[in-house]
Amino acid sequence: MSAGEGDPIHHLAEPAHWEAALESGSYTRSTVGRSLADEGFIHCSTAAQVAGVLSRYYGGYAGDLLLLTVAPARLESPLRWEVAKSAAGERFPHVYGPLNPSAVVATRRLSSPHAAPPESHVLRADGIQLEVLTVGAAVRRLRVVDVNQPDGWIDIVLGHADPVTYRFEGGYLGAVVGRVANRLAGGRFTLDGRVVQVATNEGPNTLHGGFEGFDRATWVVEHVDEARLRLALTSPDGDGGFPGRVDLTVTYAVSPGEVRIDYAAGSGAPTPCNVTNHSYVHLDGEGTGPVDDHLLQVHASAFTPVGPDLLPTGEVRAVEGTPFDLREPRRVGDVLALDDEQLSRGQGLDHNLALDGKGMRPAARLEGAGGRVLEVLTDQPGLQVYTGAHFDHTATGVSGRTYGPRAGIALETQGFPDAPNHPAFPDTVLRPDAPWRSTTIWRLRG
């Protein structure tokens, strides 16, 4: 599912300098502790550049750092950007400040070594390899046997070439997202008669749990063997504004032709909980172009229309006569070419489909142009189908190729978006006496 416009920028700060800025109301520091007066610039980076800035300037820095997330709209004085001078060895633009601390919407402490990639585990079964990172519990690679490839394998999910990227801003690629996946209107909901306000990160709304969602967290390895990995995360009471401590595990297991994802969560107090995996799939190989020639089938007779802000209107509408009638396989490019207000709002498919039936059942079938097939099974009520309109060639994949629009399709098994604000939607509140468990299966052939 796409992010909105006005994406944040980032700055790396030493904790003592940030504490001083909070007291003074002004931040005037540049890279590696130098001042704005010393260098005449500060480094504010886009998400795609953070890993590079760390590697170049802080690779040997032993102290902790803070990653400051800056909302450009909250800056008192707009920052002025100067393009990096490649002839001088500069790879990142200089940004002229200073920053007002009130523009910083989130901070995250980073520990040394700053240029180190996250811990990685590769699960293997006959004909399949799955790489999972501890940051975000993210699937970075899903490889299957392909005799037409030089090394006999093909990558079929999108993943960043530089694993360090996941430590700071992975763009949700392959990550487990939560505490509440998808969008919350106004970052606000009523729970047992009490209005709760949580952090917002997409204009006035909350997307995928906010700036510090589960995709940003470092998960703990509880078990790992050749074919199975269980990761655990504790989200404390008040995390991102959400009530109640949540203890969550996600278990990945591979077997020939199959990936199984099991989720389990418990909470000490009532809280919304809607967790999913945000992998993007390209069955003909990541980085090989748009997914337009894939055939998509979804077992859903209804969908939840969205308003201009991509939030559900509350209606559950029949798919018949709409682009969302995917009950029979349809070419993705043909669907996206239709003239439809909903498609315009999502810049393509970015919608929740209300799956037919209950319990563990088939949700979707995706077939690549080369005949490879992915079947998705789930026990969840909804499936968010997102055709990746936001990719703009700024992310480089494991193949070394960049990702453009529709580079992959996300099939996110989930509760309905914004469910806490729509009583008619399936309930997504996790309660102490009712732990949550869910399973998603990716079944591959061809």
Structural summary, described in words:
The chain contains five helices and 32 strands. The protein is globular and about 65 Å long. It starts with 8 loop residues before the first strand and ends with a strand. With 446 residues, the protein is mainly beta.
Question: How does the SSE layout of this entry go?
Answer:
Layout: E1 9-13, H1 15-24, H2 36-39, H3 50-58, E2 65-70, E3 80-82, E4 94-96, E5 104-110, E6 120-125, E7 128-133, E8 139-145, E9 153-155, E10 176-177, E11 183-184, E12 188-191, E13 194-197, E14 206-207, E15 220-224, E16 228-235, E17 246-255, E18 258-267, E19 271-272, E20 276-277, E21 280-281, E22 295-298, E23 300-304, E24 317-318, E25 330-331, H4 332-336, H5 341-345, E26 350-355, E27 361-367, E28 373-378, E29 382-386, E30 409-414, E31 429-430, E32 436-445
Antiparallel strand pairs: 1-2, 2-5, 3-4, 6-7, 7-8, 8-9, 10-20, 11-14, 12-13, 15-16, 16-17, 17-18, 18-32, 19-31, 21-30, 22-25, 22-27, 23-24, 23-26, 26-29, 27-28, 28-32, 29-30
Shape: globular
Helix content: under 10%
* Radius of gyration computed on alpha carbons: 22 Å
Strand-residue fraction? 25-35%
Mean pLDDT: 91
Work out the oligomeric state of the chains in this entry: single chain
End-to-end gap: 27 Å
Taking pLDDT < 50 over at least 5 consecutive residues as the criterion, the unreliable ranges are 1-5
Our count of helices gives 5
Strand order of the largest sheet: 15-16-17-18-32-28-27-22-25
Number-wise, the strands total: 32
Question: Which class do the helix and strand fractions yield?
Answer: mainly beta
What about the largest sheet? 9 strands, antiparallel
